[in-house]
Design brief:
- The relative contact order is 0.11.
- It contains 15 helices and 15 strands.
- It has a 5-stranded parallel sheet with strand order 5-4-3-10-11. A 4-stranded antiparallel sheet has the order 6-7-8-9. A two-stranded antiparallel ribbon has the order 1-2.
- Helix 2 packs across helix 3, helix 4 crosses helix 7 and helix 12 packs antiparallel against helix 13.
- Strand 10, helix 7 and strand 11 form a beta-alpha-beta unit.
- The protein folds into 3 domains: 241 residues, HUPs (Rossmann fold), CATH 3.40.50; 102 residues, Up-down Bundle (Four Helix Bundle (Hemerythrin (Met), subunit A)), CATH 1.20.120; 47 residues.
Length: 454
């Protein structure tokens, strides 16, 4: 059975056929590194990882590029507010992003492209758009793309140009609007403003910095070519970001740009959009502080199809964590040595069938649990087949996960260790009892103390 992916561009499932035989160019819209990504962002990155894993599993050679937006309004604002160099801000959050991806078992991209490393490519693309008559310069030095010049504008988002409202949702500020032929045109190059502090780049158009949309177009086409296979992102990227990418990329390179556009739906929290003001805003750090295995979030995400909205609650995540623990325990307790040649063909075919149908992970999980419960399948076959599926699902079934000890318990344990060094045995015993009352036990060994959950 051929793989079918839902292509946002045509709003239907289509048989996947790579541009080059068994080679795939994949581009993922990555983070804007001014803060920690929230769990809604990570739904998108897990989805992109799933696309990549499945294509690799099916024998494709995947070249994966993920951008890092390290220059835009938000990063500049953070830099100025904290009175720190832009690079100091962005490098910190880039490092934290990599840590989070690792904790979620997201495969590394072949290349992470930082926007600040591709300014020359962006300038070349803008120059080309101006020469072809698709872009224009306004008083003050900013350069804009003329959306009226691209007849297919709105095709991805299913918007008609005449129906687009002027300054919809207030996306444009007064500075952006000033001097433009049409307030719906978008910035390719933003001229330097004193509010940007010392953050700018020199260009033939004058001092300034690139617009957000041109960053992705320049990086993706430079690394993957003017025609490549798949571009992923959240549905919130469809308009205006991806719509604008298509316009400037097709006009700038003359190529077809992206063949398959794939988008995951929103992650809601307690039935609402995530918001710090509502107190329902979570990062992976928040989950770690609640002693939740990050891979459990991955399991939770797979419980719903990527094109469906999913409602996150801590209770639902707890259920996913329990299921993941049971699956890991079952796999690790199988009394056989892994033999990857023992894969059960019947279950492999069932798994492939549901995953070929636009990556239906909820049905794939059902196949997994049916295999676990199937008494007709021997242990060797179960272990090999689960290991085979895990190459796609990314649950790290064979990895022994250390018990996550709460910070509160660790602090009490350190206090107790200090009491022992001071030979304050009474205090030491009291702290041991306190640890026990919180559901943990501490044991003293030659290599130091060990904490375990009771």
């Amino acid at each position: 059975m051929a793989i079918k992916f839902y292509n946002t561009l045509h709003r239907k499932k289509e048989v996947f056929k790579s541009i080059k035989n068994k080679k795939v160019g994949l581009y993922t819209c990555g983070p804007t590194v001014y803060d920690l990504p929230h769990i809604g962002n990570f739904r998108a990155y897990i989805f992109s990882d799933l696309v990549k894993r499945y294509l690799l599993w099916k024998g494709y050679d995947v070249k994966h590029i993920m951008n890092i937006t390290d220059i835009d309004d938000k990063t500049i604002k953070k830099s100025i507010e904290q009175n720190k160099k832009l690079k100091d801000i962005t490098e910190f959050y880039i490092t934290e992003f990599y840590k989070d991806c690792n904790s979620l078992n997201i495969l590394k991209a072949d290349k992470y492209t930082k926007a600040t490393s591709y300014i020359e490519e962006m300038i070349k693309m803008i120059n080309n758009l101006m020469k072809k008559g698709y872009a224009y310069k306004v008083d003050g030095g900013s350069i804009y793309f003329d959306i009226h010049k691209f007849k297919d504008y709105g095709k991805l988002s299913n918007f008609k140009l005449k129906d687009l409202k002027t300054n919809a949702k207030g996306r444009l500020n007064n500075k952006d609007e000033y001097g433009k032929d049409d307030v719906r045109d978008f910035a390719l190059w933003k001229s330097y403003d004193k509010e940007d502090g010392e953050i700018y780049f020199e260009s033939p158009f004058g001092r300034g910095r690139p617009g957000w949309h041109i960053e992705c177009s320049a990086m993706s086409t430079y690394e993957l070519g003017k025609n490549f296979d798949i571009h992923t992102g959240g549905v919130d990227n469809i308009f205006p970001h991806h719509e604008n990418e298509i316009a400037q990329s097709k006009c700038g390179t003359g190529g077809d740009f992206v063949k398959y556009w794939m988008h995951n739906e929103h992650l809601l929290v307690d039935g609402k959009k995530m918001s710090k003001s509502l107190g329902n805003f979570y990062t992976l750090r928040d989950l770690n502080e609640k002693d939740i295995d990050p891979i459990a979030f991955r399991y939770f995400i797979y419980g719903s199809h990527y094109r469906n909205k999913i409602n996150f609650t801590l209770n639902a995540l707890s259920g996913a964590e329990n299921a993941l623990k049971k699956l890991r325990e079952f796999y690790q307790n199988l009394p056989v040595v892994l033999n990857t040649k023992k894969i059960n063909k019947s279950y492999a075919d069932k798994f492939t069938k549901v995953m070929d149908d636009d990556l239906n992970t909820s049905k794939a999980l059902a196949v997994v649990w049916n295999l676990v419960k199937d008494k007709k399948i021997n242990d060797s076959s179960k272990k090999a087949t689960l290991f085979y599926f895990d190459k796609v699902l990314g649950f790290d079934l064979d990895k022994k996960v250390d018990e996550i000890i709460p910070e509160e318990i660790k602090k009490i344990a350190e206090e107790r260790e200090l009491a022992r060094k001071n030979k304050d045995w009474s205090k030491s015993d009291n702290l041991r009892e306190e640890i026990a009352s919180l559901g943990y036990e501490i044991k003293d060994t030659q290599d130091g103390y060990k904490i375990n959950k009771k």
